[in-house]
Design a protein that fits this description.
Layout lengths: L7 H13 L12 H20 L1 H5 L8 H26 L5 H9 L16 H22 L5 H29 L3 H20 L11 H6 L7 H19 L9 E3 L4 E3 L5 H11 L3 H14 L1 H22 L1
Antiparallel strand pairs: 1-2
Helix pairs in contact: 2-4, 4-7, 6-7, 6-8, 6-10, 7-8
Bound molecules: Phenylacetyl coenzyme A.
């Protein structure tokens, strides 16, 4: 008897049923081409964000105020590199090579989180990045632990554990500055003022403007919308700012009893689009730095390939 082959529509329906049943999709499973493409886009951009995100904090490793702070910051920045590696590997399982992803980043075809195009000007900024940037990243990534693609979901579980240490190291820097001298407290306030709004932009455009959300929600690549995640972050940050005794940068922030959430001021969307389209403070510098580091690391990749070839030849000779 001839084997019955599912039509494209039947395959899509069976795929959607698996998603609706909360089953994870694994690399060798059938998936619609648009699901694969959308995942490659999101995961690779997430990986690029982790790697480019090393630069603003890396800027402060040599200038950390104590040996202990230097060791902590070094560990954190190394973690970000590791996050990039898990995520590149998850994207590779969808059939794209690391070299293709790096090329897309370096030629501006692929984006990375807008926040990393802002400069880190003071030690307070290192505190604000850990507290607010990692804090926003966690809100998003906790939700992504339930994403439908298995390798991405598993990477998120490990990454979230490390991010919570990052968030706490940043908040601890802020506590020390906020409880310090008037000049230190002012430094903490300035960093909060500079990083608060760009951190809110990490959640992406409003849902009504979000090109990918509808499909990504249907396929459970994203589990919560940009605006819902942003609201969570806004709500959780208010008591943290109060605890530090700092002023909230959003003068419109107000508890709304009926909604059970804080109402807040509007973001500067012109600034957001300027930054994601390559014209923020540091876009060019970030990419130039990445290209330089990548070129300087070419010998390591060459050495690895030569070693692999040698091992393969040795194995073949031993087997002969
Ligand atoms: N920056 O239709 P949507 C971290 C782009 S990890 C730049 O809403 P989507 C750890 C978007 O890509 C931080 N571009 O898109 C760390 C799309 O462009 P495309 C990274 C943005 O994908 C901490 C277009 O706008 N986290 O921080 C941004 O459904 C400290 C339309 O937008 C993730 O990547 C933005 N803020 O939702 C490391 C989490 N927002 O591709 C070091 C995973 C939007 O059409 C130090 N990603 N765009 O050219 C996601 O959850 C989603 O991709 C969103 C965007 C929510 C970012």
């Amino acid at each position: 008897m001839a084997e019955y082959k599912l039509t494209e529509e039947e395959q899509e329906a069976a795929f959607q049923q698996r998603i609706d049943d909360e089953q994870k999709i694994e690399p060798k499973d059938w998936m619609p081409e648009a699901y694969r493409k959308n995942l490659i886009r999101q995961i690779s951009q997430h990986a690029h964000s982790e790697v480019i995100g090393e630069q603003p904090e890396g800027n402060w490793i040599t200038r950390s105020p104590s040996l202990r702070r230097k060791a902590v910051l070094l560990a954190k920045v190394q973690d970000e590199a590791g996050h990039g590696l898990y995520l590149y590997s998850a994207a590779e399982s969808l059939g794209i090579s690391r070299a293709e992803m790096i090329e897309a980043l370096q030629t501006g075809k692929a984006k990375y989180a807008s926040i990393f195009n802002y400069p880190s000007q003071t030690w307070g900024d290192v505190g604000a990045i850990g507290w607010l940037v990692d804090g926003a990243a966690i809100v998003n990534q906790v939700s992504l632990q339930r994403t439908s693609y298995g390798p991405y979901s598993r990477a998120m579980i490990k990454i979230c554990k490390e991010e919570s240490f990052h968030q706490r190291q940043g908040y601890q820097i802020m506590i020390e500055l906020a409880k310090g001298t008037p000049a230190q407290k002012q430094m903490a306030q300035d960093s909060l003022n500079r990083f608060y709004w760009p951190a809110l932009m990490m959640f992406g455009p409003h849902d009504s403007e979000s090109a990918h959300s509808a499909k990504s929600m249907k396929w459970k690549i994203k589990r919560e919308t940009n605006d819902d995640l942003r609201q969570k972050f806004i709500d959780q940050t208010v008591p943290q700012i109060e605890f530090l005794g700092l002023e909230h940068p959003d003068k419109a922030i107000k508890w709304n009893e009926e909604r059970g959430h804080y109402d807040s001021g509007e973001l500067n969307w012109d600034e957001f689009y300027k930054v994601i389209n390559g014209n923020g403070h540091c876009n060019r510098q970030r990419i130039q730095h990445h290209i330089k580091a990548h070129e300087e690391g070419a010998w390591v990749r060459d050495a690895q390939l030569a070693y692999n070839a040698k091992q393969k030849a040795k194995k073949a000779a031993d087997a002969a």
